[in-house]
Specification:
By secondary structure, the protein is an alpha/beta fold. It has 7 helices and 29 strands. It has helices at residues 7-16, 159-167, 206-216, 231-239, 261-267, 305-323, 377-381; strands at residues 2-5, 23-27, 40-41, 51-52, 56-59, 73-81, 95-99, 111-114, 118-121, 124-127, 137-138, 149-151, 172-176, 180-186, 190-191, 202-203, 220-227, 246-250, 270-277, 279-280, 286-290, 297-301, 333-338, 342-343, 349-359, 362-367, 384-388, 394-395, 400-405. The strands form 8 sheets. A 7-stranded mixed β-sheet has the order 1-19-21-22-18-14-17, sandwiched between helices. Strands 8-5-7-6-10-9 form a 6-stranded mixed β-sheet, with no helix packed on it. The longest helix has 19 residues, at 305-323. The chain is elongated and about 90 Å long. The mean pLDDT is 94.
Length: 417
């Protein structure tokens, strides 16, 4: 087991254990936001025939040479082509067909004139423009052709993909299975949110924040409950989560007299890959895996609420995204200008919770205040995590810094462009 490693190495060891999960078949709508597991090839040509992009008249361009509003050309309207219909015969010289958006362009026609450029008069129509060849005509196969690969494996499905799949007659789709995450909390002092929190007891909020983070990363979760500070009870609760893909515990992973997570994990067959990462908040984190027989990947996260959330974000979140088939698994990093001085000791990389504002083209970053790992409210205020490198001891106000963006709303806008 490796100890006291840096963040990059820890992240590399975690991701080396991650593989996309097998596929499952779900409805197209259930697949939104999930990752396509297999290629989708078209069995149809879309549109299936040349069709009109406008309501108007299908014409032979050569019949309209020199047509202008002042000198329109008059054609005889011989039939109408509704969407879903077809022309009964080819158009010939001097003829036009009334046509509607999406309707097949009849044989003999090579352009469509929009209704706004015409004037109907009984069974005749005056055309006021000379159209371009194939103007307002959508070519057969302009969208896709039978045999085309329309969607590649690894595509994250969104609304456009749903419409495309429906157009191809696909109402079911093969996507990577969602990771199953089992979460437990440990400590005699913990109670459920509706329990008695008097007498120094603490609500087990980590189970809720970690579950929310897992769901945000595309997982499904189960809460194993609270394990008491005995090896026996901890083993009982851990074993209840062995059928999950990922098992996450919080607290009890350090080196105190009541920190039983590491020895109990080893007892039930989990080999620890590392313990301790040179970061703040969140040094006491463990990661392990079962090498014999099936078993989940296991994280022992710190008990302090901010430490638990930050370590989850840095290690568990990218793992879950990869297991769900994602390729882009890391948060965006933006440049920001620091608006205050920051100082620390060398040796550990710090993730500083910051609020972000815009000033013209610049992004300004300011600390959320008290950076104690027990101040959970700081995570509700943080829009990003400022990366304070391990060996750097000070960053001065006005310096450009890297910030992992936590809040997708920061890049949204209240006004249209």
């Amino acid at each position: 087991m490796r100890t006291g490693i840096d963040v990059a190495e820890a992240r590399s060891l975690v991701l080396a254990a991650a593989e996309p999960l097998p596929s499952e078949t779900v409805t197209v709508i259930e697949g939104m936001g999930r990752v396509l597991a297999t290629s989708v090839e078209s069995t149809r040509t879309l549109p299936p025939a040349d069709c009109s992009a406008m309501d108007g008249y299908a014409v032979r361009r050569e019949d309209l040479r020199g047509a202008t509003p002042g000198a329109p050309c008059e054609l005889r309207v011989v039939y109408e082509v509704p969407a879903g219909g077809r022309g009964p015969r080819p158009l010939t010289r001097g003829e036009a067909a009334r046509i509607f958006t999406g309707a097949p362009v009849p044989e003999g026609a090579n352009s469509v004139v929009r209704q706004e450029d015409t004037e109907a008069a009984g069974d005749r129509v005056r055309i006021q423009v000379e159209p371009e060849l194939r103007e307002h005509v959508r070519d057969a196969g302009e969208d896709v052709r039978a045999g085309d690969e329309v969607l590649a494996p690894g595509t994250v499905l969104g609304p456009g993909h749903a419409g495309m799949l429906a157009s191809l007659g696909r109402t079911w789709v093969s996507v990577h299975r969602r990771p199953r995450v089992a979460i437990l909390s440990g400590g005699d002092e913990l109670v459920d949110p509706d329990g008695d929190a008097s007498g120094g007891r603490i609500v087990a909020s980590n189970a809720y924040s970690l579950a929310a983070q897992a769901v945000e990363a595309g997982a499904v979760t189960s809460n194993l409950g609270i394990a008491r500070d005995t090896p026996e009870d901890l083993e009982r609760v851990l074993r209840a989560g062995l059928d999950a893909d990922v098992l996450v515990s919080s607290a009890g992973v350090s080196v105190g007299d009541h920190d039983h997570v590491r020895p109990v994990l080893e007892k039930i067959g989990c080999r620890l890959v590392f313990w301790g990462v040179n970061m703040k908040p969140g040094y006491p984190i463990a990661f392990g895996r079962f090498e014999e027989g099936p078993g989940p990947l296991v994280f022992g996260l710190p008990g302090n609420p901010v430490s638990a959330m930050v370590t989850f974000d840095q290690f568990v979140r990218p793992l879950l995204l990869r297991m769900g088939g994602r390729r882009r698994i890391f948060r965006p990093v933006i440049k920001a200008s620091l608006v205050e001085d920051l100082e620390k000791k060398a040796g550990r990389l710090h993730f500083v919770r910051v609020a972000l504002t815009r000033e013209g083209d610049r992004v300004l970053a300011s600390s959320t205040g008290n950076q104690s790992s027990g101040v959970l409210r700081s995570m509700t205020l943080a829009q990003g995590l400022l990366i304070f490198p391990a060996e750097t001891t000070e960053i001065r106000s006005g310096s450009e810094v890297d910030v992992q963006l936590l809040d997708p709303e920061f890049e949204a806008r209240t006004e249209a462009p």
